[in-house]
Amino acid sequence: MANQLLKGKRGIIFGALDDKSIATKVAERCVEEGASIVLTNAPVAFRFGEIQKLAERLDCQAIPADATSLEDLENLIDQSVEILGGKIDFVLHSIGMSLNVRKKRDYTNLKYEWMQKTFDISAISFHKLMQTCFKKEVMSEWGSILGLTYIAAQRTFPDYNEMAESKSLLESFARSFGYHFGTHNKVRVNTISQSPTKTTAGSGVKGFDVFFDYADKMSPLGNAPAESCADYCVFMFSDLSKFITMQNLYHDGGFSNMGMSPAVLDLEE
Ligand SMILES: NC(=O)c1ccc[n+]([C@@H]2O[C@H](COP(=O)([O-])OP(=O)(O)OC[C@H]3O[C@@H](n4cnc5c(N)ncnc54)[C@H](O)[C@@H]3O)[C@@H](O)[C@H]2O)c1
């Protein structure tokens, strides 16, 4: 269902790793809606070849960039402006990785060098990306920047580990930079807080499958799928959401406002 909501818009999409990635669905929907995009991911992600295949399919370019490297980000932004032929209208930050989670370190036994790397990859990269765009003056007026987050930033989900703090930081960067970008040239910055989704990053969290089912039962509408998250991103990149900024927006089938659900307690007939 394409309505050309992003016709003539130029965007950069971070984080499409494979066909399950939320960023892959967002890239597909943006192109369907008429946008021109550049895909990017960490150089290591290019080894798998999936991002190149996606770029071919969507007839766009894919540029490797480690989101923690200012040099890579500067190169990416310069190249994207040249390839797309003008200023950038939207950016998706869809990046998350925890070294302590990957190496199975519990929250009460974290390695701090890894924690710092986790924050750098999962949250500070969002600031670095925005600061690079800001300094280079590449965002169009009324442009839209989005980061993807999770409700563990507000509530405790023990197995989410240090990613909880990463997401709190990410959401805080969205609010603070949203002020600076808004007053500077009316660029909006928001985060979308997505339901558990079966992707590489999601499945790395301990007990993910059981938790996925729990969240699905707790949410009156069920877990929001990645495809619907992509629809929401399209709306947020479009001119239909011009005055929404500095928000953390729940896209979770109602989960965030639930206390208890009979479905979880198995009380339903
Ligand atoms: N899957 C879920 O349950 C869920 C729920 C809420 C929010 N999110 C968030 O959605 C976003 C996308 O994750 P996903 O679930 O699609 O998983 P994914 O594994 O497909 O995407 C994560 C991406 O981060 C990229 N990345 C890691 N290190 C990087 C670096 N240094 N530089 C550039 N890119 C780097 C990976 O290559 C990958 O493409 C993340 O921010 C994640 O925390 C996911």
Brief description of this entry?
The protein is an alpha/beta fold and 269 residues long.
Task: Tell me what you see in this structure.
- It is a single chain.
- The protein has a 7-stranded parallel β-sheet with strand order 3-2-1-4-5-6-7, with helices on both faces.
- The mean pLDDT is 96.
- It has 269 residues and is of the alpha/beta class.
- The protein is 44% helix and 16% strand.
- The protein has helices at residues 22-32, 50-58, 70-84, 99-102, 112-136, 163-185, 200-203, 208-218, 226-237, 262-265, and strands spanning 10-14, 36-41, 61-64, 88-93, 139-149, 188-194, 248-251.
- The protein has a single domain, classed as Rossmann fold (3-Layer(aba) Sandwich).
- Residues 14-15, 17, 21-23, 41-42, 45, 66-68, 94-97, 121, 148-150, 194, 196-197, 199-202 line the site of nicotinamide-adenine-dinucleotide.
Topology, element by element:
Blueprint: E1 10-14, H1 22-32, E2 36-41, H2 50-58, E3 61-64, H3 70-84, E4 88-93, H4 99-102, H5 112-136, E5 139-149, H6 163-185, E6 188-194, H7 200-203, H8 208-218, H9 226-237, E7 248-251, H10 262-265
Parallel strand pairs: 1-2, 1-4, 2-3, 4-5, 5-6, 6-7
Helix pairs in contact: 1-9, 3-5, 5-6
Oligomeric state: single chain
Counting H and I runs of at least 4 residues, what is the number of helices? Answer: 10
Largest sheet: 7 strands, parallel
| Helix coverage percent | 40-55%
> Given the C-alpha coordinates, what overall shape results?
globular
The number of distinct β-strands equals: 7
Hetero groups: nicotinamide-adenine-dinucleotide
Task: Tell me the series of helices and strands, N- to C-terminal.
Answer: EHEHEHEHHEHEHHHEH
